[in-house]
Amino acid sequence: MIVAAALPLVAEYGAAVTTSRIARAAGIGEATIFRAFKDKDEVLDACVAEAVDTDHVRRELASVSLDEPLADRLAQAAEALRAHVERMGTVVRALHASGHRRRARGPGAGVGPDAPGDGEAPPPADSRAQSVAALRNAVVELIEPDRAAFRLSPEKVAAAFLSLLFTRLQTPVPDADAPLTPDELIAVLLHGTLNAPGSA
User: Fold this and answer.
1) In whole angstroms, how far apart are CA 4 and each of 36, 50, 92?
2) Domain ranges, ordered by start, for the chain
3) What is the pLDDT of residues 166-185, one digit of tens each?
4) Whether pTM exceeds 0.85
């Protein structure tokens, strides 16, 4: 409840958000925050963990009806993933811009010549890979009913979909060269870029 109330405030104010403002948004007393968290930095770290967690977007993907056409399922998946990446980026950028660095966890974490600067904790080595694998598996479930229609395995199609989508979301392009729309991205994934396959 505290983290849910804090997330939009962190996205707006970054590390400058106060615990009293978070408490008002959560409808609790400020002292209640410090019964759940050691200090404000711990609240901010919990907000980062919540923003990057994929559980929410995986639930959204699981709620897409498998009775819908494949392109519609992928369009809904693209929108859910876009919202997830945007939410994550907004929170992380706001905190980074306001000087907050996630703290090290555990004895000796973030200490030594190879540790990140400013006390920032290194992410677990396999956490990003696990998140991507979980998202890929959620997309696989969405396209599995159409397995027979693909030349590649659903796992490879899902990986291609995520690669195209994340590249689109993370790569800035000149104004004159607008990024692929979700519909164009899905059309490229499902039909390629040739007017007629085999015509080139």
Assistant:
1) 14, 9, 15
2) 53-97+123-200
3) 887 766 555 556 777 888 89
4) no
